[in-house]
Amino acid sequence: MTPPTVQATLRAMRLEYTFSIDDVIVPRFAVEAVEGIGKLFTLATLVLNVMASKQRVEIVFHGLNPDDPGRKIDAFREIFGTSEGVHGIQFTPGRGGKIGGSSSYYQWLAVERARQ
Q1: How much is the pLDDT for 40?
Q2: Would you say residue 99 lies in a domain?
């Protein structure tokens, strides 16, 4: 039998790690379709900030409905495009589909600055 204080500690345990964005050639992020519009605004601003120093970012959108990833990508692109400083950005769909043995669908999206 595990004492209550140890049980509470085990429930609160989580894995944390750090890395420098400078150590990553292509930063990658994920967003779940059930996340609200607020998460997409946060993701868009994060990607804009990262792209100030990176040429390319990849994002995987995933959800339980086959239409979820596409809808989130459309909303993300719309939010992203409202920034004053967005010029020469290319959105390229990557691999997408269904994860075998699950009810999860996904779609990768590459966001890339035009080379100068």
Answers
A1: 93
A2: yes
